[in-house]
Amino acid sequence: MAKVCDITGKRPRVGNNVSHANNKTKRKFYPNLHKKSFYIPEEDAWITLKVCTKALRTINKNGISAVLKKAQEKGMIIIK
């Protein structure tokens, strides 16, 4: 299962764990993903998306239809 947001395209980032002795070891920063179902009234259908919390806030603000339209224009999601 890829840890990628369906709306924003956020992916895991790579960084370092830095110890008190300044030793650096590789680590990953994962996006805060949630599997969520959304109702689209225009299509009278439910869709399930894997979205990060930033995308959830954007959906709450702008609405699911507008966000899906913008994501489709960017090529992040394919709607049939």
Which structural traits does this protein have?
alpha+beta, two-stranded antiparallel sheet, 80 residues, elongated
Q: How would you characterize the overall build of this protein?
A:
The chain is of the alpha+beta class and 80 residues long. 26% of the residues lie in helices and 35% in strands. It is built from two helices and four strands; from the N terminus they run ββββαα. Strands 1-2 form a two-stranded antiparallel sheet. It has a two-stranded antiparallel ribbon with strand order 3-4. It starts with 12 loop residues before the first strand and ends in a 6-residue tail after the last helix.
Short description:
The chain contains two helices and four strands, in the order E-E-E-E-H-H. The chain has 80 residues and is an alpha+beta fold.
Radius of gyration: 16 Å
- Count helical runs: 2
User: Mean pLDDT, rounded to whole units?
Assistant: 93
Contiguous low-pLDDT stretches (5 residues minimum) are none
What is the strand arrangement across the widest sheet? 1-2
N-to-C terminal Cα separation, in Å?
22 Å
**Number of beta-strand segments:** 4
Q: Determine the structural class based on helices, strands and strand pairing.
A: alpha+beta
| Main sheet properties | 2 strands, antiparallel
Secondary-structure element order, N to C: EEEEHH
Relative strand content: 35-45%
Helix content: 25-40%
Molecular shape: elongated
Secondary structure layout plus pairing:
Layout: E1 13-18, E2 24-29, E3 33-40, E4 45-52, H1 53-62, H2 64-74
Antiparallel strand pairs: 1-2, 3-4
Helix pairs in contact: 1-2
